[in-house]
């Protein structure tokens, strides 16, 4: 019998890559998602007999209690992701990003294993020149960061759990997000040929969405050795400022112009560099570089355009 995995929010940006990857490994996957964005990103999975899907809300205790039954691994991806969205719906941010995780951990049996994604934006503003490790203090600057940091602690308080502190994710997905920093800047480079950068010296780390999916598969396969700890998940050679990111994108789009605004602030004030040594020591290695992702996005944006309310 294949291992049974529940993925909440499995039709989202990461889930739409992760769920097919789990099915490819021979796991039985149940997705619980409310399909908030009317996405059809899991259509290719519907012909797989190891795939089940439930249209429901991850905060519904009655449904969650029933769907947890018999599952070996739980991957709660359902969340309001990003500082702007959480500010727009502060009640939803609390109830989905924290309360629903608390509920899942309460309902899950001690033998059920949880792999949970959080954000390394929980590090807030790091010390100059010092890499943030999993032992560094967590100082989230946004409601998004606060809810994810609190939820991570609830997950790690269980014995059978591990967490991935994700760098800023990039790359194409069937449920695309164009608002993520790399994805946004590449789109602007390709179609607008210009971007205005606020506080361009702020640094952060990056990771391709396919490597995120690979990390979850790896975490399942090596769970006993990795459990009980958080893991930074990012590219060691991609601790870049926004200006450095623009320079890298400009290499692929020579006509791209970026300007740093003399006034104004970025609402997401995270600024840090991250060490991914722990996950590397655990044996996981990334496959997608930032360059690979930019080239992939160039093809992606040949297909996709932000033209919903325009004539051309």
Secondary-structure element series: EHEEHEHHEEHEEHEEHHEEHEEHH
The share of residues in extended strands comes to: 15-25%
Mean pLDDT: 95
Q: From the alpha-carbon coordinates, what is the Rg to the nearest angstrom?
A: 19 Å
N-end to C-end Cα span: 52 Å
CATH topology-level name of the domain at 4-170 and 207-235 and 275-287: Rossmann fold
Strand order of the largest sheet: 3-2-1-4-5-7-11
Largest sheet: 7 strands, parallel
CATH architecture of the domain at 4-170 and 207-235 and 275-287, by name, is 3-Layer(aba) Sandwich
CATH class identity of the domain at 4-170 and 207-235 and 275-287: Alpha Beta
State the helix count.
11
Tally of DSSP β-strands: 14
List keywords for this structure.
Rossmann fold; alpha/beta; globular; single chain; 11 helices; 312 residues; seven-stranded parallel β-sheet; three-stranded mixed β-sheet
Short description:
With 312 residues, this protein is an alpha/beta fold. Helices cover 37% and strands 20% of the residues.
Structure commentary:
With 312 residues, this protein is an alpha/beta fold. It has a domain at 4-170 and 207-235 and 275-287: NAD(P)-binding Rossmann-like Domain (Rossmann fold). It has helices at residues 15-24, 61-68, 83-88, 90-107, 143-156, 181-192, 209-221, 223-226, 242-252, 277-281, 290-303; strands at 4-8, 28-33, 51-55, 73-76, 113-119, 131-132, 161-166, 168-170, 194-197, 203-208, 230-233, 239-241, 257-260, 273-274. The protein is globular and about 55 Å long. The mean pLDDT is 95.
């Amino acid at each position: 019998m294949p291992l049974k995995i529940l993925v909440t929010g499995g039709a989202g940006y990461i889930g739409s890559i992760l769920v097919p990857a789990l099915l490819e490994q021979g796991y039985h996957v149940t997705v619980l998602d409310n399909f908030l964005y009317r996405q059809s990103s899991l259509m290719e999975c519907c012909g797989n007999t190891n795939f089940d899907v439930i249209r429901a809300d991850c905060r519904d205790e009655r449904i969650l209690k029933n769907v947890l039954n018999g599952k070996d691994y739980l991957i709660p991806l359902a969340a309001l992701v990003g500082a702007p969205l959480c500010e727009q719906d502060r009640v939803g941010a609390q109830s989905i990003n924290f309360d629903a995780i608390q509920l899942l951990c309460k309902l899950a049996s001690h033998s059920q294993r949880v792999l949970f994604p959080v954000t390394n934006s929980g590090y807030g503003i790091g010390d100059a020149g010092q890499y943030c490790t999993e032992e560094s203090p967590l100082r989230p600057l946004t409601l998004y960061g606060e809810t994810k940091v609190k939820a991570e602690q609830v997950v790690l308080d269980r014995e059978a759990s591990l967490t991935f502190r994700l760098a800023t994710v990039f790359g194409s997905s069937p449920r695309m997000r164009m608002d993520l920093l790399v994805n946004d800047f590449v789109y602007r480079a390709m179609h607008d040929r210009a971007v205005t950068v606020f506080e361009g010296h702020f640094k952060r780390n990056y990771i391709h969405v396919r490597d995120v999916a690979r990390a979850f598969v790896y975490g399942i396969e090596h769970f006993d050795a990795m459990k009980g700890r958080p893991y930074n998940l990012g590219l060691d050679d991609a601790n870049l400022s926004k200006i450095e990111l623009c320079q890298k994108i400009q290499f692929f789009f020579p006509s791209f112009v970026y300007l740093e605004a003399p006034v104004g602030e970025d609402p997401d004030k995270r600024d840090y560099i991250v060490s991914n040594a722990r996950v590397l020591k655990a044996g996981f290695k990334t496959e997608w570089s930032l360059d690979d992702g930019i080239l992939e996005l160039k093809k992606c944006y040949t297909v996709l355009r932000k033209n919903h309310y325009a004539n051309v």
